[in-house]
Task: inverse folding
C-alpha cells in the first residue's frame, strides 16, 4: 500500500527547494544578460521569422502568377510541393533544435540563413517540377532551424 502512495505522489519524497534566492549582483547580472539578448539576438530572430513567413506565403502567389505554366506543374504536383515543404519542416524541427544546443547560435544561425538563401537561389533557377520540389524540400529542412 505504501509503495502505491509513493508511485502516485513521488514529489512527497523529494526535498526540493522551489524558491531560488539570488544575490543583488546575480540579479543585476541576469538583467544585463536579458537586456543583451533583447538587443542583439531578438532583432535577428524577428527578421528571420518575417523572412520565413514571407517565403511560406510567396509560394501561393508564385503559383498563381505563372509558375504553374512555366514549370508545367499538374495540380497534384502543386499540392506535393506545398505538402513536402511542410513535411520536411516538421521532420527537421527537432534535429535542428538539437544542433542549436550543440553549436553556438552565431554559427548555427549563419549556417541556416546561408543555406536558406542558397535554396531560394536554387528555386529561382528550377526548370522542372522535380527541381522545384527538391528546392522546396531543402528549404523546409533549413527553415526548420
Result:
Amino acid at each position: 500500500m505504501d509503495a502505491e502512495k509513493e508511485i502516485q505522489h513521488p514529489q512527497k519524497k523529494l526535498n526540493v527547494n522551489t524558491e531560488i534566492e539570488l544575490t543583488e549582483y546575480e540579479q543585476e547580472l541576469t538583467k544585463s544578460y536579458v537586456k543583451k539578448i533583447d538587443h542583439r539576438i531578438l532583432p535577428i530572430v524577428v527578421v528571420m521569422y518575417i523572412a520565413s513567413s514571407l517565403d511560406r506565403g510567396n509560394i501561393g502567389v508564385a503559383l498563381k502568377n505563372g509558375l504553374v505554366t512555366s514549370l508545367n506543374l499538374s495540380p497534384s504536383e502543386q499540392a506535393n510541393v506545398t505538402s513536402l515543404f511542410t513535411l520536411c519542416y516538421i521532420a527537421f524541427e527537432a534535429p535542428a533544435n538539437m544542433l542549436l544546443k550543440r553549436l553556438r547560435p552565431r554559427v548555427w544561425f549563419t549556417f541556416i540563413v546561408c543555406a536558406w538563401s542558397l535554396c531560394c537561389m536554387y528555386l529561382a533557377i528550377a526548370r522542372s517540377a522535380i527541381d522545384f520540389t527538391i528546392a522546396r524540400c531543402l528549404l523546409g529542412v533549413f527553415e526548420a532551424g
Summary: Residues 27-143 form one domain. The chain is about 80% helix and 0% strand.
